[in-house]
Amino acid sequence: MAHGQGRVRQIADSDTDGNAPTPPRRWIDHGAIVPLNHPEHREFGPLLVAPGAVLHSAQQMISWARSHSLWQMMFGLACCAIEMMAANASHYDLDRFGVMPRGSPRQSDLLIVSGTVTYKVAPMVERVYYQMPEPRWVIAMGDCATAGSLYYHDGYSVVKGVDQVIPVDVYVSGCPPRPEALIDGILELERVIRGEAEGDHP
Amino acid sequence: MTRDHLPPDPARTATGAGPPAGTGPASIAPEHLIPEGEYAAPEDVQDFLINIGPHHPGTHGVMRMVTRLDGEKVAGLDVRIGYMHRSLEKIVENRSYHQVIAFTDRTTDYLAAMHNDWVYCLAAEKLMGIEVPERAEHLRVITGEINRITSHLMSVGALGLDSGATSYFLWCFNARERLVQLLEEISGARLTYVYLRLGGVIYDAPPGWTDRVREGVRGVIDELPSYRTLFHDNYIWHERSKGISTLSHDEAMRIGAQGPVLRSTGIRWDLRRDMPYSIYDRFDFDIPVGTTGDVYDRTEVRFQEIVESAKIIHQAIEDMPAGPILAKRVPRLPTPDPGEAYARLESPRGEIGCYLVSDGGMKPYRMKWRGASFHNVAMLPALSVGYTLSDLINIVGTIDPVMGDVDR
Amino acid sequence: MSAVPVPGIGSKPAVGAREEARHAFVAAARDRLGAALVGYHDSRDGAVCLITPASGYRAAAEFIRSQGIDRFDFLTCVDWPAHFTLTLQAYSFETKLVTRLSIRIPRDDFAVPTITDLWFLADWEEREVFDLFGLNFAGHPDLKRILNPETWVGHPLRKDYADHVDIKRPEYF
Ligand code: SF4
Prior knowledge:
Chain A is α/β, with parallel strands linked by helices. Chain A contains eight helices and five strands. The model of chain C is unreliable at about 1-15 and about 165-173 (pLDDT under 50).
């Protein structure tokens, strides 16, 4: 991912005269077919970009594909799980984004920790996470999974954030987050997977 | 292209119905069949244990069921709970009486948040002697009953999901979504409405809201016959639900069944009518009951309660007076006299209760939450032993546990 | 679906029936419990509260059960500075009479007899009280923690449970 980005930034910086339109970054990142007369060809001529070729590293291509078919582990913990179900059901319809609920961790790429993680359930969350095949991603949905929420003080049985147990890629705040917020979190995760996200993602 | 345009199927036309004699599975020669005795397990085969949960999709939350199986039959069941224990009772000992409302609607039965806030408010109002204005009572009833419909839709829809009828789940969610939007309009939240306050409610109905409620509820009720055709009258559902996990009156009384599970055995017991709270004694509604208390009846009771809730909503909107929505002079930091108060209420899952003890301070000295699901899950072994493992998932679905209510 | 009529259930009580039931219940309690009944009062939510010494708990519970009070509400404990109060509430389907039984248990000696044989639902409630307060119920068939993990240290709902400020992490962290 990183290689593609570096080059694209270069193009954008060098086009300062204002005559040639800056090529949109997404042409390259999304693997669009680059027209022959486009300025990028002057830049990347030696890189053998022929008409109709897709300018991509294999890694980029794979990430792009992965980011659009996130199969989600059905793991409802608490109130947020209801909103997660609402996001999966007819009105919000997460299937549009290639997010399909799966019953088994062995078949899923995405763990949405939807709800409060207690000390009693934390080992199970951890186990489910390690049962998922690599590469796997985690969304902490709701304030509870992010930081313990209302139960931060005096909640003797609540883990103060699921990131104490498993690594988290995207946090979605809200108590509960609306389904739109969850969808936004999933889109953000797609950007993380494609390496487009801003911020200090690994 | 419909079936009529297809070329006629020779196998069908030959005999009129079904494959002609001599073809199809019926024609397997007897010598090819394995004699029945070979399937039988040897005498010395032991029962085996199978663990379901804590995150199995069929457990409706995080609950663990350690099942002892004899063949495919459940011979023993050990239910382990506590995975969603969120220390509600400890937290509220360190919060003021007003702050508790935010906890009761999340930490307990979050599918019926209105009812949980309501029962807490009832207990606290009893403790402090607060009178609730008429209009607020009506708004509580209307929002509570809408919430009951959403909860029941969720329950029967999830049951469809459990038994393989995914489209039924989608239909139910579609209807639920429209009602949730009505609740959002008045309370500002989709799931955890902190809408009730001690002594009333916090927001008045926005202009035109009652009309939209009427329309929305009527729209859902009008759709119910098609739901019935899709799922409740479906032959497959009848096969999977009738006669499964039957419960008699006496047994239901002995194990303390709650709510729809109790009513499905034929006992016409509903706190809204039998120990009326709020203004429920003014409304005219039926209490649907079943006869055998099996999986079918429990689902049916929930499904019919949707219609009754709609009746209550229409009546409450009809009678709703103008006026204040919050009692005057509720202190910002209430300090009720030392004492105790208990309130109970019929939530979609059955009877919930809140026991409050005050020592005269600003915080509740002790709160005990009596969850309906807690008691319903406790009786799960009594309901499911003797039925198959695949029925167990449906049985769990029909007692409709919400793990927040079980573990608090 | 039609209802199978169950005697006594589902009919609205006559006006004053609850009052009558209350009088009969209190009279019977005086009669049967005798000196074990320390006192009784009507709480502000309309329940009849019986108060007995800790030694009379089992007898009082049996008495309540024998009066047709079949519906179990809850069993809970309150941690007062000097003692624990164990409170049991149940009500009757028929008369709708709500009864509450409270006993005081000294802090240093807290074994109470179980009532799981009287009400089915008392089983889990007793386990919950054991988990959160550490009260022992003598004769309970399976007394172990129910909400917290079995390795949990301490009884969280006691007022002197100081751990909630800085929670001791279980081993897997
Ligand atoms: S963040 Fe809020 S809605 Fe989500 S699980 Fe926690 S308390 Fe429930």
